[in-house]
Design a protein that fits this description.
Strand content: 35-45%
Strand order of the largest sheet: 1-2-7-9-8-4-5-3-6
Radius of gyration: 16 Å
Distance between the termini: 39 Å
Mean pLDDT: 78
Structural class: alpha+beta
Shape: globular
Length: about 200
């Protein structure tokens, strides 16, 4: 799957899953605005370290995401418009012309969700280590995330099911998708993580 088809598939998944999310009961939660993500190209493989934590109800595996710095396209948009942001990212000639070499990952960082999850601030970007002159960067702060998808290749149905697995009744702080790329820009694997805040 190349980057263009990855963009279309991700957009379709987000649209369908957010539709399901809107049907779930929610609690209004005030969220604070935060800056966005980034990661060193050489550290993409080591940025996510497994740890374990125990929840109140049962034992969950968590992953610690080290600080990641990315540059790309950012917008506070309706979640139904994420496909448009992917298109803008793909058409960003200035960003793509600033690449040193073929990137090995694209990050999608969701935060500042509205109370009913119909909008969020979303950044789609490359790790700054891939860029010659990074500017207007976004930092994903280090945190313990629950994996929705571990790193491997997934079908569209599996990606949709991961979005449906989110507990929309909780205080969702961040969702991070990592799309790992081959030298030719094909998606080789995807990883999806979520960070819930305190209630």
């Amino acid at each position: 799957m190349n980057l263009a088809s990855s963009i279309l598939v991700s957009g379709a998944i987000v649209l369908s899953v957010w539709g399901v999310a809107l049907l779930q009961p929610t609690q209004a939660v005030a969220l604070t605005k935060q800056k966005s993500p980034a990661l060193n190209n050489e550290r993409v493989q080591t940025a996510i370290e497994e740890t374990s934590a125990t929840s109140k109800r049962h034992s969950l595996t968590t992953k610690h995401l080290n600080k990641v710095i990315i540059q790309g396209n950012t917008a506070t948009i309706a979640t139904s418009d994420v496909a448009r942001l992917w298109q803008d990212f793909g058409d960003n000639d200035r960003l793509n012309g600033n690449l040193k070499k073929a990137p090995n990952a694209v990050y999608v960082y969701y935060r500042n969700f509205s109370a009913n999850f119909d909008s969020a601030t979303v950044t789609i970007g490359y790790p700054v280590a891939n860029l010659t002159k990074p500017s207007a960067t976004t930092t994903i702060a280090p945190a313990d995330y629950q994996p929705l998808l571990s790193r491997k290749k997934y079908t569209q149905k599996q990606l949709e099911e991961a979005w449906q697995a989110i507990d929309y009744r909780r205080n969702i702080q961040h969702v991070v998708e990592v799309h790992y790329l081959s030298e030719t820009g094909d998606t080789t694997a995807t990883e999806m993580l979520i960070h819930y805040g305190e209630r």
